[in-house]
Amino acid sequence: MEPILASQASLRAFQCDTGIKMLSDSPNLKSVPSNFTFINESAAASSDSIPIVDFYALTSGDPDQRSKAIHHLGKACEEWGFFNILYIYIYIYIYIYICRDVVVEYTERTRKLYRKLVEAVSETLELETHYVNEVLKLDSSFQIFVTNLYPPCPQPDQAIGIPEHTDPGLFVFLIHNGVAGLQIEHNGEWFNADSPHNSILVNVADHLEIFSNGRCKSVKHRAVVNNETERISIVMANGPSMDAVVGPAAPLVAKDGAAFYSSMKYEDYMESLVTKSRYGKSLLEQMKIHGN
Question: What region holds the Fe2OG dioxygenase domain (predicted)?
Fold first, then answer.
């Protein structure tokens, strides 16, 4: 599958971001214009508790080593919804002009990593790999490639990079230029999501929470800005097929005695994101069946 590079929504976002970039480059910019003001409390605690998953152990031929890594992955998905994965050779640096061939290569490499993670988390859920592949139609899985530029901001407390949100899909990968800025919510508290060198920050996305019937957690996160250094992040969102109808896995519903989320075609979910805020609830919250 070829990467999704643009849509009408992303074009509008690009036009807006271009205006922000021009604004940030202005030599006379001393404050955030009122139409861009976003009052926020960006304070967050530092944490070295965000789990680190060793990809080599996860794919090891040693059953004991692999079993421990899979258990660690399962705990990370259930307790944090975020983890760092050590995978040194997957880095492909993309500079000012995005080369189509490089993007295609990057999507192919991350797709392999993504499938390995789905396979491993399926084991923690005691689901057969072929069942997961068939239900989610992973042979035609949908990927979205996004790059984000956060220029220095003269008043970081008056602006936000990206407001708090969760992501659609199963797993989302993020690498950046070494400048911190991502924060995640854990047990009602915000933490700075610092990534070790040569690692990929991975977060559980909405559809893994739905498919696992709530065992894996898609947690809120946000991007904040600073007044000194430009931040660049590269994000690869990995989902099921656009044709897949995603709901709680039937074997897990049988164990739990009920489905805790409704089902929806992935394509419809993606389209609904443009109007996801309804009565203050995210689309993921709307999918929850609160009567159970």
Answer: 140-240
